[in-house]
Design a protein that fits this description.
single chain, 249 residues, alpha/beta, 6-stranded parallel sheet, 13 helices, 53% helix
Length: 249
């Protein structure tokens, strides 16, 4: 289905598991994105970002508002990451953690995954601090330090992971994956995961399950992180306004 010009796939958990299994068994690279209301709003002004999202091999609905509007089944990025690690462990595949901007978060995430998936091969991790700090210019173009980015690519190539978990924050991570995946021959799945490392490392506490089930995780995060008010406004009021406006056209 298509919401505000962005493709959103509607698969249940078993169908997603089958796709993940197929991706890992193939000889090709696959991009997985997790569109949410905030991302769709950003894509209205950033047409390149919209193209990037629509190039995903699997676009899993993440966000209660998007699920409500589209009817697609919601699977938060952190839960999708658990499915990927589960199937990677069962197939003896390896993963690499990239992003968050913090070595402490990377180490905390590794520790969590090693305890939850004892047989999972974690072949490396990098906070990607330089990339995490980069902001797009007025034309929504993200310019990387070529030398540092090349060094990062070389490190990932040496680690030869099957799965690349990328947490640079939305927009940046999807663009980075799209622009660099072709240079990472071992990677079968690359996925943008936003703040998922912050959750599993313990840096940020996730909302209680009952709040997640009724779609109020955003409210919990707003109470704990008032600085997110602009992002919450965009993901709720602005998103619904654009959807209603689009329906009238």
């Amino acid at each position: 289905m298509n919401i505000l010009g962005v493709r959103v796939d509607n698969f249940n958990t078993q169908e997603i598991l089958k796709k993940l299994s197929y991706f890992l068994d193939s000889n090709l690279s696959h991009k997985i994105f997790t569109p949410n209301p905030e991302m769709l709003v950003d894509a209205q002004k950033d047409h390149y970002f919209k193209e990037v999202l629509n190039s995903g091999d699997l676009n899993v609905c993440d966000g209660f508002g998007l699920s409500l509007v589209s009817g697609a089944k919601r699977l938060p990025g952190v839960d999708l990451m658990m499915l990927i690690c589960q199937i990677a462990e069962s197939k003896n595949k390896s993963i690499y953690l990239l992003g968050s901007g913090s070595q402490e978060v990377i180490e905390g995430s590794k520790n969590f995954l090693e305890k939850k998936f004892p047989q999972l091969k974690i072949v490396g991790g990098h906070p990607g601090l330089e990339i995490s700090k980069i902001k797009a210019d007025e034309k929504n173009i993200i310019v990387y330090d070529k030398e540092k980015n090349d060094d990062l690519i070389s490190e990932i190539i040496m680690s030869a992971p099957d799965v690349l978990l990328v947490a640079f924050g939305h927009v940046k991570q999807e663009k980075w994956i799209t622009e660099n995946l072709r240079d990472l021959p071992s990677v079968k799945i690359a996925i943008g995961l936003g703040g998922s490392f912050d959750f599993i490392s313990g840096k940020i506490k996730r909302a209680p399950k009952f709040l997640r089930l009724i779609g109020l995780e955003w409210l919990y995060r707003l109470i704990r992180q008032p600085s997110r008010i602009k992002r919450i406004w965009k993901a709720t009021v602005v998103f619904l306004f654009l959807v209603l406006k689009n329906k009238k056209v």
